[in-house]
Amino acid sequence: MWIAVLIGALSGVVAALCGVGGGIIMVPLFTAFLGLSQKQAVATSLAAIVLTALFASLKNSANQFVDWKIAGLAGVAGAVVAWLAADALKHLSNRTLTVIFASVMITMGVRMLFAR
Q1: Cβ contacts of residue 92 below 8 Å, gap of 6+?
Q2: pLDDT, average across residues 13-38
Q3: What mean pLDDT is predicted for residues 55-81?
């Protein structure tokens, strides 16, 4: 249980500073240290990130950093598509999901490094 708490705390720091945490921190650590399958790690991190995102959003709003119009539009669109796409999780193998996850992380990381 302490490992889960430490993973959550690390995810909270990264979420607050970078706007990410569930996927980048929780998923790999849940699989490596808690023995969850890739599917379980994805689903568990999504459930855990709800509170992290809520509290970071409240603080960022108080600091006047949130554009609520963009957040609302992106949030509704993301929620609808996530609801529909969550069914795909049961049809993908853990290996395929890991490859997709790693590919997205590498692609976005490289893009961010070279963005102006």
Answers
A1: 39, 100
A2: 85
A3: 94
| CA contacts within 13 A on the Cβ side of 20 | 9
Is residue 44 a contact partner of residue 26, using CB atoms and an 8 Å limit? yes
For residues 104-114, average pLDDT: 89
Distance of CA 79 to the CA centre of its chain: 13
45 within 8 A of 27, measured Cβ to Cβ: yes
Q: Where are the domains of the chain?
A: 2-114
Residue 19 to residues 12, 16, 69, 87, 116, Cα–Cα distance (Å): 9, 6, 17, 25, 19
Mean pLDDT score, 73-78: 92
Confidence (pLDDT) at 73: 95
Joined together, the tokens standing for residue 55 give 């509290």
Q: Note whether 92 and 99 are within 8 A (CB).
A: no
